[in-house]
Amino acid sequence: MLKFDEKIESLVRDLPDAEGARMFYERLVAEHARAAQKLVRDEGLLSDALALAAWSPLLGTTLAQNPDYLNWLARERLDTHVRTTEELDESLARFSLTHSQVEPQVLLARFRRRELLRIYLRDVRRTNSIVETTEELSNLADAVLAYALNLARQELDNRHGAPLCTDERGRKTTASFCIVALGKLGSRELNYASDIDLLFLYSDDGHTSGAGERGQTTNREYFNRLAERVTRIVGQQTGEGAAYRVDLRLRPHGRDGALSCSLAGALRYYRAGAQAWELQTLIRSRAAAGTAALYARFAEEVRGRVYTHAASVEEALRNVRLAKQKIDRQHADTSRGFNVKLGRGGIREIEFIAQALQLAHGAEDSWLHAPHTLISLGRLADRHLIFERERTELSDAYAFLRTLEHRLQMEHGLQTHSVPDEEGRRTLVARRMNFKGHDALAEFNRALELHTARVRAAYERVFGDTREDAPRASNAASDEAATGDATVKVASSANDETMTTESVVDVEGESVAVDEREPVVVGGEAETAPRVDANLRTAPFSEPRLEVATGAHTDDAAILAAAQVFAPRLNAHDGHASLHAREMEEAAASRVARFLREAAHDSLNSRRALSYVSRVAASLDKSSTSVELSEESLRALVGLCGASEFFGEMIAGNPALIPALLTSAEAVRERDYRALLRREIDRESSFRAELMALRRAWAQLLVETGARDVCGELSHAESNCLQTELATASINAAYFIARREMARRYGNLAAGPRLCVLGLGRLASGGMDYGSDLDLVIVYDAAVPSPVGTLTREEAYTRLVELMVSALSSLTRAGYVYRVDLRLRPDGKNGALVRSSESFVEYLRTRTNVWEWLAYVKLRAVGGDLELGRAAEAEARRA
């Protein structure tokens, strides 16, 4: 144990977590002695660094991992003004110059983490108010979005040229684009671990100039791709987390809507189709990046619909009250400890008081249209819609509860809102809230009780007695209440969006663009693309870094939180006294937490195991799917998460896969993959539903193989063989889906189709592994007429292949199946997606390069008409 001199002891003595500050300094001395010596010479900087470690172990770790940030912090720590978006734009530009070798996703995640050091230091030192803190956090998000938008737009302009439209005078001009912020970002009240709720708008339909390398495309396609790329840059998980989790569910038509919406389309939706809760979200909306004038046009047009004269005060209050009751119902089933955001007397009740009264009276008084909660409360009091005493009490409670929310979230960067019940941890929270002395916990509890009681009293006065249950909708799909920052997010359909990197798949009959790069990552835990461990048993494992966005830190609190989710779901007939579901809830959670630690200790990587198990628990806690657990399935889950980030991500995105972990090796070996996938697809009647069914069944089958692989019950050769069989079955399932969709669009197919899928690389050699791409060449029989009478043979087969590739590689909320690589086809990216078998063989005979011959050595027919494929194989080998 390092001996601290009196100077350091005097600095840590009064900190809320003195031991945490000492541990930070010990680590710095051990790992970066020179930086520690320099730090000791600057007592002010030393004091601030120790304070950051005491208030936020996350930021203490950030400083210990990046000691060069201390020099930056020394320059920044005394500047207490709130940075504007423009100033942060400049800082980000300078940061990017010194980090030019890293991916944009990593750069933005690092920049955000560095800026949090400065913002949180002023927060805990109380030199900035809660309003200033949340404003600067919002400005930081705006700067990140603007950077991502500029980068994405430059890429797309290089590919397709600028998107063009015709103005009122008939002149060609560039169509504009705007990222609209909703929720807390929209009102500039973002917290440290908020999702960012976004809506993408573009001004006009039309076409791009075609000046780029890939030629002309429609503005609709351009802006959908732009939205995808921005979302990926900002929201894609990296080894250092994502800059932000991006939530797009509040866009027009929800999950069924295109990623970006034209101004005309958005106005049609909000004027006629939007529900009351969707209009409520627009109270807190603004332009975060892009063309502000476009948002101004949109806001002006929809304002009358948001604040409508047709709605009575009673109707406005009722709509908001029902939204809050849906939140309460969901929260009541899953809550542990007091929830600062959603609990009785919490932040959401303050926000809903303000928004309900704005909706009720905003049509008559535009001065009430303020998006910020505290400003809104002030204006409501000025108009005598709440009492002055209520304004003061609600404002004080808001500041207290938001500060408490920040202290909880910045401990480890988790998106948490629950105040711990355990006395030691709760006392630490009290000290971080600046309650001191032996009575710190008691004073904190009294303050929390006082503020929440005042909020609840005001809430009940405004809304009346709200203890009655809200009527439940009969359609479960339309009543899937998600508690997002803006309001209740109700899924408009059970179907989710389907995306590839180049286009949103259009299931209404328009052609589908196909691109061969990696699928876009939308963000959010359920939509995270995994990093693949190529060999589950032997791959080297790196210790995960702490992540603000994903909550990868797995301390006792995170483990206990996971245990509290798992304990009620454990099978009561499990037969293990240590995990018996009928035990007292607290004792059961404690036992499950101990069990998780022990199981993690036995896994290949304990930190990885607990990190992903915590994420699985968080996802399970938010899921409406019923998943029964047992000690055996929990142990298997921990073992698989400890062995593989790939499967940890997969199960975190879909906890319903947990039961698949117990499938025996014998059952896995005997699976008929083609029959299983076909059976699931046959049950559906739409393209989108078939894609979802394919993904669900494929994920279960892959997890079964991975679980047995990790346990050593499958040899490496068996694992490769099973995965190759699954890939082959998936290709044939996708071909089946594509044929059904062609028939839906064009009527029964007149002839054939006679098409074959040829595999290359790992697929052809039987060596498919976790995360392998599908290297394909696709040919058709030129002797058979076009399967669609209204299309040429080339057009019909091209559309069929586009649908098939989309079925395999498009990203839905259930994930994607495989990345499809068609670059080895004749003439590469410049060649047709599909060609006749004769022209394929002719290409091999006359125009093939040596490296292509090597690639075609493993050529093998894997899907479609295998007779045609084997004939093409034979001809190709002779060539």
N-end to C-end Cα span: 73 Å
Strand content: 5-15%
Largest beta sheet, briefly? 5 strands, mixed
Structural class: alpha/beta
Helix content: 40-55%
Give the tally of β-strands. Answer: 16
Q: Could you say which overall geometry the principal axes of the C-alpha atoms support?
A: globular
Radius of gyration: 29 Å
Spans of at least 5 consecutive residues whose pLDDT stays below 50 are: 466-554, 572-583
Mean pLDDT across the residues is 82
Q: Please report the number of helical segments.
A: 34
Please tell me about this protein's structure.
54% of the residues lie in helices and 7% in strands. With 879 residues, the protein is of the alpha/beta class. The strands form five sheets. Strands 3, 4, 5, 6 and 7 form a five-stranded mixed sheet that branches. The longest helix has 31 residues, at 130-160. The termini are far apart. Residues 466-554 and 572-583 have low confidence and may be disordered.
Task: Produce the secondary structure layout.
Elements: H1 6-12, H2 18-31, H3 33-41, H4 43-55, H5 57-65, H6 69-76, H7 85-98, H8 104-125, H9 130-160, E1 164-166, E2 172-174, E3 177-182, H10 183-186, E4 196-202, H11 219-235, E5 246-247, E6 260-262, H12 263-273, H13 276-281, E7 286-290, H14 292-306, H15 313-334, E8 338-339, H16 347-361, H17 373-382, H18 388-412, E9 418-419, H19 423-432, H20 440-463, E10 481-483, E11 488-490, H21 556-566, H22 585-601, H23 606-622, H24 631-643, H25 645-653, H26 665-669, H27 673-682, H28 687-710, H29 716-746, E12 755-759, H30 761-765, E13 774-780, H31 793-809, E14 820-821, E15 834-836, H32 837-846, H33 850-856, E16 860-864, H34 866-878
Parallel strand pairs: 4-5, 4-6, 13-14, 13-15
Antiparallel strand pairs: 1-2, 3-4, 3-7, 8-9, 10-11, 12-13, 12-16
